[in-house]
Write a structure and sequence with these properties.
Number of strands of chain A: 0
Helix content of chain B: 25-40%
Shape of chain A: elongated
Distance between the termini of chain B: 38 Å
Structural class of chain B: alpha/beta
CATH class of the largest domain in chain B: Alpha Beta
Largest interface: A-B, 17 and 15 residues
Oligomer: heterodimer
Order of helices and strands of chain A: HHHHHHH
Radius of gyration of chain B: 20 Å
Number of domains of chain A: 1
Largest sheet of chain A: none
Strand content of chain B: 25-35%
Number of helices of chain A: 7
Distance between the termini of chain A: 12 Å
């Protein structure tokens, strides 16, 4: 029974460490997806003046998956099913800081509101800011992602030693 | 389509308490009452439907106007900026929004319009058979006479053109019809609306549309709306010289005002059009005042 408890606690500790590292990885992928989104917008808007909704609908599935439902939430606003709000946009995302939410919210609010030249400039501006966020998320992932796994392992081992 | 562009409270009133079949225009001006145009009469929109009492009228706001334009552009203003620069926007389904606001100009070129302050939403209506009273008078042995519809704004010239195209198809006149739909108003998008023999070029100017259309689609008849500029007139002359029959429209309220209209001297002197149909609002939009020949002699009253 004691050995079983030790094994359970060890794996629980490992899991917590892994969950933390996954959060950092998700965050990095999320901002990378926004960089890609801005690049796609810039091309689609300038090339074919494609409508915002179609751009979202035509994203490939892996890209959509990394946006964590924010695309679906925004489309529900475009379809007049809901008002555009932070609660609507970020309802399935917990890892964003308040200032990051503000930035993303303003980004979504600006979509489709101006002529081609201004919209393209705005998107390039947001692209730069999302690239900055991606870099910082990459660093956080490198620093804290692997650290979380290691910490989980160390804590697990510590529990094992303590209980043995 | 109206439900996709109007705020839900305004749409619900229009849908439930006003007969939209009789509404020609909805005018929204920032901080002013919403006005409906019904059969040429102007009346306010209130909570309980139409009202003549200003105190009961619903008011439009600047944000409401901006949101309607945003929605009408399918949430992508940049994709319709070329239309907005010309002061209008046409949605799917042929609803046309005339837009008032601040023009942004750079080096004499209009870049866009901002600070929207008013919209005139023109609701298209399909009035089946409205062209029938004069239909046979516009046909000749080969195709149709070159015909110009003369009408003041809102008197039904686009509806007439739309119905005439449909009548040709419905009566098995299998002419290749090219519809040059410069503002996206002629084709309402519903199945079979323009009949079975019509090709369409949308949102192109008359010069480009006529040249490309004649070259690529070899039409027997070209139908287009609202001739106005010298370029439009030259495009018409080009088409007429290519042996294509024409059905077009122009803004004016009488034969006399048409004859004194700028840019049209050549069309008149060379008798490009053999038939003129004059429309008015006398008995409501689409009232046919008369059909005239190339010498402006009345052949039907």
């Amino acid at each position: 029974m004691k050995i079983l408890l030790i094994v359970v606690l060890f794996f629980a500790s490992l899991f917590v460490g892994y969950a933390f590292s996954k959060k950092y990885r998700k965050r990095q992928q999320f901002f990378e997806a926004f960089v890609m989104l801005c690049q796609k917008f810039d091309v689609e808007i300038n090339f074919s003046k494609e409508r915002i909704k179609n751009i979202f609908l035509n994203l490939d599935e892996s890209h959509k998956a990394r946006l964590l439902g924010i695309d679906r939430n925004y489309i529900s606003f475009l379809d007049q099913e809901a008002e555009l709000s932070k609660e609507l946009l970020f309802k399935s995302i917990s890892f964003l800081k308040e200032e990051e939410k503000d930035l993303l919210f303003i980004f979504f609010k600006s979509l489709g509101r101006s002529d081609l030249e201004s919209q393209s400039k705005e998107i390039k501006n947001y692209l730069t800011r999302f690239e900055g966020l991606t870099q910082s998320a990459q660093q956080d992932n490198k620093k804290y992602g692997s650290l979380s796994v290691k910490l989980g392992l160390i804590v697990g081992l510590f529990i094992v030693i303590l209980l043995i | 389509m109206l439900n996709k562009i109007l705020p839900s409270d305004i749409f619900n009133i229009l849908h439930n308490k006003v007969n939209l079949n009789y509404v020609n225009e909805i005018r929204l001006r920032a901080d002013k009452p919403i006005v409906l145009s019904i059969g040429g009469q102007r009346i306010f929109l209130g909570e309980q439907g139409v009202t003549a009492n200003l105190k009961e009228a619903k008011y439009a706001s600047k944000i409401m106007i901006e949101d309607i334009i945003f929605r009408a552009s399918e949430c992508s203003i940049y994709s319709v900026n070329e239309q907005i620069k010309k002061g209008f926007l046409v949605t799917q389904g042929g609803i046309r929004l005339g837009i008032g606001g601040d023009i942004v100009e750079e080096k004499g070129v209009i870049k866009t319009m901002t600070n929207y302050s008013s919209i005139n939403i023109r609701l298209p209506h399909e009035v089946r058979n409205c062209s029938l009273p004069v239909f046979t008078q516009l046909l000749n042995q080969q195709t149709i006479y070159n015909t110009l519809i003369l009408s003041p704004p809102g008197a039904g010239k686009t509806t007439f053109l739309r119905d005439f195209i449909w009548q040709l198809s419905e009566r098995n006149y299998a002419y290749n019809v090219l519809v040059l739909d410069e503002r996206g108003e002629l084709d309402l998008g519903e199945k079979g609306g323009l009949g079975n023999f019509a090709d369409k070029i949308s949102f192109a100017g008359k010069t480009v549309g006529f040249e490309n259309g004649i070259r690529s689609l070899a039409p027997n008849i070209i139908v287009t709306d609202e001739l106005a500029t010298q370029n439009d007139v030259e495009a018409v002359m080009y088409a007429a010289n290519c042996g294509v029959s024409l059905l077009a429209s122009v803004h004016c309220d009488s034969i006399e005002s048409f004859c004194s209209k700028q840019n049209f001297e050549k069309i008149i002197s060379e008798r490009v059009f053999q038939r003129y149909v004059l429309l008015s609002m006398r008995n409501g939009p689409g009232t046919i005042e008369g059909v005239y020949n190339e010498n402006f002699a009345r052949i039907r009253s």
